[in-house]
Amino acid sequence: EPVEPEVPVDTGEFTLADNVNDIWNTVGQILVRLDGVEYESRAQMMGIYALRYRGERLLIRTQAIAIGSPTEGVLTRVLALGPDGKPNHSRAAVELLEVLEQRIPVEIGKYRTPVKLKKPAKPKKKKRKSG
Is the dihedral of CA 78, 81, 85, 87 positive or negative? Predict the structure, then answer.
């Protein structure tokens, strides 16, 4: 009998063309206002929010993706992990990621960290020698 190919499971994971810090900030703002989410903690250095959603403990992670060159822009992956740090593809995780995927592009402008460029240094005036 022919074996049917496995249907790939939708992981809910997605990638956006934006920087990890702005996406992480936006994810946090969405999560704290989202019905059904019980916010527990966060770790910005790891890009993680710990929470409960639909009775399930999840970690939502934002992760910068290395790309070929600076001219290609920046990418950030958003995924769900279980408390053990392994990918979580449960129904609750996929549903939450779908909400984030829809809302991040709409809301990121509100939470973007402004880039402050250094002003060019003023040339120093030469001191005149007296004498």
Answer: negative
* Site of tokens 């399930």: 56
CA 93 from chain center: how many Å?
15
Q: Cβ atoms within 10 A of the Cβ of 111, count?
A: 17
Residue 11 corresponds to which tokens in the numbers above?
């992981």
Q: What is the pLDDT of residue 3?
A: 54
Listed residue (49, 115, 37) closest to 78, CA to CA: 49
> Which residues of the chain, if any, have pLDDT below 50?
5-7
Nearest to 97 by CA among 54, 46, 131, 68: 54
Can you give the pLDDT at residue 128? 63
Q: Hey, what are 79's tokens? A: 């995924």
- Alpha-carbon distance of 128 to 122, in angstroms, equals 18
Give the pair of three-digit tokens for residue 48: 């993680």
Structure letter (DSSP) for residue 64: E
